[in-house]
Every structure is written in C-alpha cells, then in structure tokens.
Specification:
By secondary structure, this protein is an alpha+beta fold. The chain has 5 helices and 4 strands; from the N terminus they run αβββαβααα. It has helices at residues 3-15, 53-66, 85-102, 112-119, 126-145; strands spanning 19-23, 33-35, 40-44, 72-74. The radius of gyration is 15 Å and the shape is globular.
Length: 146
C-alpha cells in the first residue's frame, strides 16, 4: 500500500467532507464501497492487491465528489463505457492522484506508465492518464511563469 498517497487522499477527503473508514474484517476480494448520501467510504485494508488501494480510495472519493446517482457503490475496475458512472469515477481518481504523483517530478521526467504502475491503474485509462499528466504540466508551467 502506498501510505503516502493514501495520507494525501485522506487529507483531500477531509477537504471534501468525506469520511474514510478502514476495516481489517473483510475478505481480501471484497471491494471498497461508498455511500454518496452519507459521504462515507469503507476501505478494505486486507485487499489482495495492495498496490491498487490508493487508486481505489481515489475512485470512491470521486463517486462522492461527482454526486453520483447511486447511493451505495462498490469499486469496479473493468471498462463499462465512457459514459458510465464507474468510468467517470476512474477519471476522477486519476485527476485526484496526478497532482500528488507529479508534484516533485520535472516535466521531462514525467512517465505515464510509471504512474499507471504505481497505482495499478487499469490499462484502458492510459489515455486519461496521458491527458491529465499533460494538463497538469501545462497548468503548472503557466502558473510558474505568470
């Protein structure tokens, strides 16, 4: 588990008035879930693939930030179409993690595949990671020059 990324996301959750609870009592294959109405996330500390936990947390946060229609949502990493609630939560997860990941990385050293591997981002989101990485550096370049 990337504890630094998780700590960063937990601070962001506070900014969004989202409560994150962790449990050790779940099966390693029970996905995290959130309630949009109560703004609560339940994370599985025993998840079978610890590398993906930070992305999962960001994904669940995105459901709440987006105000998704479904109240209780379980994490799903499979591709469900670009208009789906799950896809939009995946995009939101990437957007939440990009500033954390690249904050100390010079533009010329930015590597989207390192980002994907760091957080076990599903491969179908490579274009989203590329787009958000580019947007991050263009925005930071503009801010640092003006």
């Amino acid at each position: 588990m990337d504890n630094d990324a998780i700590a960063y996301l937990e601070k962001r959750a506070v900014d969004y008035h989202i409560d994150v609870d962790w449990t050790d009592d779940l099966n390693p294959f029970t996905p995290p879930a959130c309630s949009v109405l109560t703004r609560k996330i339940l994370m599985n500390r025993n998840w079978h693939n610890p590398v993906s936990v930070a992305f999962q947390l960001a994904h669940e946060m995105s459901h709440i930030i987006n105000g998704d229609d479904s109240d209780f949502v379980f994490y799903n990493a499979s591709f469900t179409g670009k208009q789906s609630v799950e896809y939009k939560a995946n995009v939101g997860a990437v957007k939440l993690l990009v500033p954390y990941y690249y904050q100390d990385v010079e533009k010329e050293n930015a590597n989207v595949y390192d980002f994907i591997n760091q957080f076990d981002v599903p491969s179908f989101l490579a274009g989203v990671v590329r787009e958000q990485t580019k947007e991050y550096y263009v925005g930071n370049y503009f801010l640092s020059k003006h």
